Amino acid sequence: MRYQELNLDGLVSPCHNYAGLSPGNLASKDHRGQAAAPKHAALQGLEKMWRLHQLGIPQAVMPPQLRPRLEMLRTLGFSGNHTQLIDTAARQAPELLAACYSASSMWAANSATVTCSADSNDHKLHFTPANLLFNLHRSLEAQESNRILKRIFGNSEFFVHHPPLPASIEFGDEGAANHTRLCADHNQPGLTLLTYGYQQQPDSLKPSLFPARHSLQATEAIIRAHQLGPHNSLSMQQLPASIDRGVFHNDVIAVGHRNLLLLHEEAWLNQAHSLDQIQRCWERLTPDNTPLYIEQVSRRDLNVEDTVKSYLFNSQLLTLSSGEMLLLAPLECQEQDAARAVIEKLLVSYNPLTQVEFMDLRQSMNNGGGPACLRLRVPLSDTELAAMHQGVLLTPALYQALQQWINHHYRDQLGPEDLRDPALIDEIHNALGVLEQILDLPGLYNFV
Ligand code: SUG
């Protein structure tokens, strides 16, 4: 049975904006209140998807979630028609208006944790949508992610959809941003690495400045629900001091793909011990002696501050048809001397990485979302790929249709004041109504 890794990228929404909503995410704080460029942002994201398609890697589109979430404003006591709701919220609680208008579902890596059917005991592909409970604007995504993923992966013969974990501090879950699957190749069983930021118990180590968002208990629940076991899963804790310097998800400081794990030396607590465990699990899972390459970048070569600025570890590692690997890195890595030097060193080191390409994703990067944040990896057998909804798979025709759609429906600029404009609601509804047709997902949105 042949397996491939599908990249499912969040399509940037027409309401992409910079509201500074995520404490601990330095880019989000730094760009708060600036005008965003939704059209440019969506086209940048689409170009990345197109590049993967050109490289022969299966690529699909995750539709944006419906915003503004006006029901949230109603739940919080605001009332009236659309115009009155927006107007009162803008005057009395602009931060709530911004939260209900966030385009954050674009970062598909946070939409769910996915387990390959080659790894689960029941040989099914498992999805658990992340509850994202640490940020109000992101907590609005969980149920809708569940619904959208069920539409795309609807065939219950192959796909299992779990509900989000309980929205309680014990179970903070940020999805695949904290998940890495290592495997000899996609056809082989994999090792699941789940990273957490805190344990919900007294005396456990936590960052002191910024929130840790993902709990150990959430990783344990996912391991149970997805039918994994101690032989093919490990959990490790993020280094609290690195969270305090802006590493709000593990994918800001580590990335793994097939038999290459690339990470900073200050990614995890007791890192040497975790790497040792990974090596031992790897050897038991891959009896054919396929080597595991672990590239640990030292703070001397790249300190954590520059790691966060460059987003080097938020690059995508991709397997080319030759079997070699390509690093799809954000443009910021080309512009920063230390990150560029690290990449040059990696390319000549003994590992499967042989090429690099830089992508301009600055619109998303300004909110703390690099190449890897924008995609959810879904390892699929050929049968599973054929069983999923085909309308979201990127083809030249879909690429062109989406380009035209974005150019037609998106604004060039969106600043905080524009969220008060009731016309924006109709614009978004019109755009998403057309998108349902383009992606052949009728009735996807519940326009109210
Ligand atoms: O959760 N930013 C997102 C960025 C998510 C990045 N994803 C991964 N690392 N996988 C977050 O902090 C900012 C929104 C704003 O400030 O307007 C935001 O939600």
Describe this structure in words.
The protein is an alpha/beta fold. Helix content is 34%, strand content 18%. It contains 17 helices and 15 strands. It has helices spanning 26-30, 38-54, 70-75, 82-92, 94-100, 136-139, 142-152, 216-225, 240-243, 271-285, 304-310, 331-335, 337-348, 362-365, 382-387, 396-409, 423-438, and strands at 3-10, 59-62, 112-115, 125-129, 159-161, 179-183, 190-196, 233-237, 254-257, 260-264, 293-297, 316-319, 325-330, 353-359, 375-381. The strands form five sheets. A three-stranded mixed sheet has the order 2-1-15. The chain has a three-stranded mixed sheet with strand order 3-4-5. It has a three-stranded mixed sheet with strand order 6-7-8, with helices on both faces. Helix 2 (38-54) runs antiparallel to helix 16 (396-409), helix 4 packs across helix 5 and helix 16 packs antiparallel against helix 17 (423-438). The chain is globular, with a radius of gyration of 21 Å. The mean pLDDT is 97. Bound molecules: N~2~-(3-carboxypropanoyl)-L-arginine (SUG). Residues 18-22, 25, 28, 102, 104, 107, 109-110, 138, 177, 248-249, 251-252, 367-369, 373 line the site of N~2~-(3-carboxypropanoyl)-L-arginine.
- What is the SS-derived class? alpha/beta
Give the distance, in angstroms, between the N- and C-terminal Cα atoms.
Answer: 44 Å
Strand arrangement in the largest pleated sheet: 2-1-15
Note the total helix count. Answer: 17
**Rg over alpha carbons:** 21 Å
Small molecules (ligands, ions, cofactors) in the structure:
N~2~-(3-carboxypropanoyl)-L-arginine
Q: Rough shape? A: globular
Arithmetic mean pLDDT: 97
Q: Which ranges are low-confidence, i.e. pLDDT below 50, for 5 or more consecutive residues?
A: none
